[in-house]
Amino acid sequence: MFPGADEYGVEVDVDADEVDRLLSVGPDDVEKPQSVSFSRNVFVPLTTACRYTCTYCTYYDVPGQATLMSLDEVRDVVRMGADAGCTEALFTFGDEPDDRYTEIHRQLDEWGYDDILDYLAAACEVALDEGLLPHSNPGDLTREQLADLAPLNASMGVMLETTADVDAHAGNRRKTPGQRLNTIRAAGEVGMPFTTGILVGIGESWRDRAESLLAIRDLHERYGHVQEVIVQNVVPNERSDFERPSIETMRRVVSMARAALPAEVSVQVPPNLSEAASLVDCGVDDLGGVSPVTDDYVNPDYAWPALQELADIADEAGVSLHERLPVYERFLPSEDSAVGTGDECEWLRGPIVERLRTDDVHGERLRSVARGDGPLSVPDQANRTQS
Ligand code: SF4
């Protein structure tokens, strides 16, 4: 049983023989995909407050310094993204701010919100209003919290990172593998298309990596909700000096991910942190969300590649490149058209389906990307950044 799993009642089936088999997998054991995909997004760092203090993280700010975007600021950013042809509003922030963040709670209260998740729901509504599909990563959530946010998100995510207990999750307030597995399970229970992943190089062993991938597979096999698994290497930064894993390490881990996961689950590497072109033949078929307009606030030292650079990565790897929505095709409403015509949809709720079907310039952009004929162009705004 993984650390913290008992507390959350999470039973994940990871067979020791399967772990051994996965540990023997290398790049020669997997096939190169025919194409790689990406999603064009804007990054919306709603707050930099987080109750945890993971040692590799430069995202969070301590109480007194943490920021909280107003909804007007959110609207400005997502509108800029929509103008630049984006389809995704990426709301990523840490776990719910604890009591130490008095200023954040006071501000939310003044604006009339119960907590940061209540506020996130309002921010998602702004994104939908401006023509983007929200994808939220607000840390660990209960099933009830996920159910509340589900109608306003095309997909959501949380990084498992690892099933091991590592010093990198240091301090009195530390997230546990059991808590993360519980969130991934809860997403499956509410039927939310989900993104998760592992973080490589934070003190985990090779066996931990194999177990983490098989734990994700086990949860996906129960619910069918995992759309992609990110294999992300740690990078040195101003708060830590973790060594960046070698390309040989990453090639082996990516191969293990491809071998462990069913074909419908994409394997993603972030092209601003990894040598993506050298990993495609190990089974990478997605390059994640790439922003033509906003910085990567989680890894601010590592700039997003411009869209043309993604095309170069695909060229170098000998595969084609195509744009996708933040929710993968198999979760879209029906087969009648790019986003369907019927009222029923197993995975997406009313506001998302309505956004996809609205007869306006944004709906047309979303549908053309869903059909696979969205313009893969590098807009003038490429490389424009927001401070
Ligand atoms: S990695 Fe996530 S949970 Fe950990 S401190 Fe950073 S924002 Fe918080």
TrEMBL record:
Instruction: Name the pathway.
Output: Cofactor biosynthesis; coenzyme F0 biosynthesis
Q: Where does [4Fe-4S] cluster bind?
A: C50, C54, C57
Q: Cofactor binding mode, per the note? A: Binds 1 [4Fe-4S] cluster. The cluster is coordinated with 3 cysteines and an exchangeable S-adenosyl-L-methionine.
Q: Which residues form the Radical SAM core domain?
A: 36-272
* A Pfam family that the UniProt record links to this protein: Radical_SAM
Q: Per the UniProt record, which EC number(s) apply here?
A: 4.3.1.32
Q: Where is this region: Disordered?
A: 366-387
Q: Describe the reaction catalysed, as an equation.
A: 5-amino-5-(4-hydroxybenzyl)-6-(D-ribitylimino)-5,6-dihydrouracil + S-adenosyl-L-methionine = 7,8-didemethyl-8-hydroxy-5-deazariboflavin + 5'-deoxyadenosine + L-methionine + NH4(+) + H(+)
Write down the required cofactor(s): [4Fe-4S] cluster
Keyword annotations for this protein, in alphabetical order, are: 4Fe-4S, Iron, Iron-sulfur, Lyase, Metal-binding, S-adenosyl-L-methionine
InterPro entries according to UniProt: Aldolase_TIM, CofG_family, Elp3/MiaA/NifB-like_rSAM, F420, rSAM, rSAM_sf
| TM annotation in the entry | none
Q: From the UniProt record, list the coiled-coil ranges.
A: none
Matching NCBIfam families: F420_cofG, PRK06245.1
Q: What does this protein do?
A: Catalyzes the radical-mediated synthesis of 7,8-didemethyl-8-hydroxy-5-deazariboflavin (FO) from 5-amino-5-(4-hydroxybenzyl)-6-(D-ribitylimino)-5,6-dihydrouracil.
Task: Note the subunit structure.
Answer: The FO synthase complex consists of two subunits, CofG and CofH.
Q: Which family does it belong to?
A: Belongs to the radical SAM superfamily. CofG family.
The protein's name in its UniProt record: 7,8-didemethyl-8-hydroxy-5-deazariboflavin synthase
Which species? Answer: Haloferax larsenii
Starting at the broadest rank, the lineage of the source organism is: Archaea, Methanobacteriati, Methanobacteriota, Stenosarchaea group, Halobacteria
